[in-house]
User: What shape does this take?
Amino acid sequence: MADQDLRDTDRPLLVAKSLSKSYGRIAACRDVSFSLYPGEVLAIVGESGSGKSTLLQLLSGQLAASGGHVSYRMRDGVTRDLATLGEAERRFLFRTDWGFVHQDPAQGLRMAVSAGANVGERLMAVGWNHYGRIRDTASDWLGRVEIDIARIDDAPRTYSGGMRQRLQIARNLVTEPRLVFMDEPTGGLDVSVQARLLDLLRGLVAELHLAVIIVTHDLVVARLLSHRVMVMKDGRVIETGLTDQVLDDPREPYTQLLVSSILPP
Amino acid sequence: MTAMVDIADAQKTFTMHLQGGIELPVVRGVTFQVNPGECVVLSGPSGAGKSSILKMIFGNYRCDGGRIGIRHRGALIDLATAEPRQVLNVRRATIGYVSQFLRAVPRVATIDVVAEPLIVTGLTRGDAQARAGELLHRLNIPERLWQLPPATFSGGEQQRVNIARGFIPDLPILLLDEPTASLDAANRAVVVELIAEKKRQGVAMVAIVHDDEIRHLIADRIVDVTSFAAAA
Assistant: This one.
């Protein structure tokens, strides 16, 4: 058992090889390669326009690459090229083994239906049909993301920004995905709300042994959450390594500029 | 005896791109070994590169040349060339680092800050908290503070929480960056005691201490860093 676990964590979950994307003559993403292992948190940092969001779309199969490919080790242990998955298979992956946390919770939630239904919907999509169990699991998850159970029947449009984001996280994690993509998850929030969310995410990621690819322009977020970081500029990965290594000992001129632009804690 | 830390000819230079690309040599030719149960104290004036060497051994600073040999699960790994995942594995199972300041996570209770390294290794929360409590007790952090996050504590209290967190896991290598800097005499004595216990358990340690008295008490050997100073 322990042996098998070891082997599982030693095999990459997702592998990107020479990924590129161009729009006409503009290259949004050039020649990106890396491997992500189970339980590993990778931060992609860089300014707006550096190509990090494009890369996230490519990695999650939402955008077709102009070159290169992404492969993913499915729950049955078989590694598949994402480009060869059918639309139904890809959607199934998104409902089960993957999560996607958007910067704007309204993009990841159904704003007009109740919070409980937002979480329960993902369970129904994977075949759960016992109303009581769905509701129990949904309220359990609301508790884990620190949402008052009394608000379970309220729609997220009545929630604050921080609550919406926590609800989006619950909705994503309820199916126990192995990989979660996050696009600036703390982006639109007040600083105090951000700190609480980061804390919560940190705990959940460790507890659930989640692999995460998180896009952020905020180096504090990268430091708190990620094991490894990739710095992007003009569509290219210019520096990569252990997060504390890259942030404490940055080598590239652009990384040094980024690091020197944050105020010391 | 097989050395736990085996550094050979390691060097480090910072290139400051924002200052016109000037090169700031830090250390070169760093060569020394640390055996199990031994505490090596790095000496030399401020700016000689002591902390940088410690960070290189932890894989926090990258190495420009030479070897940072670490005995990890029975095999020698060169941290100067290791993959990020290997460095993380080495930190999980082999090297602990007690920094000068506690980098506290905002809302986590003190007892959990200290217990976390044990929980990561698979101990139950209850057992981990029990050991964390013992250590906090020895370091004179009153029990009424254990459930509070350490962010609001005094400098000395934070450092003691940091020491408890650093000393709690049973790792074979421990790096200490001024562990006694802002402590009173009673708590300094506790840290000296903790270091002695680690030695008896066979832990290899590299420490930076400015206090002469403490250095006398803990050092088995002193490595003078001035000989590695790169700015000749």
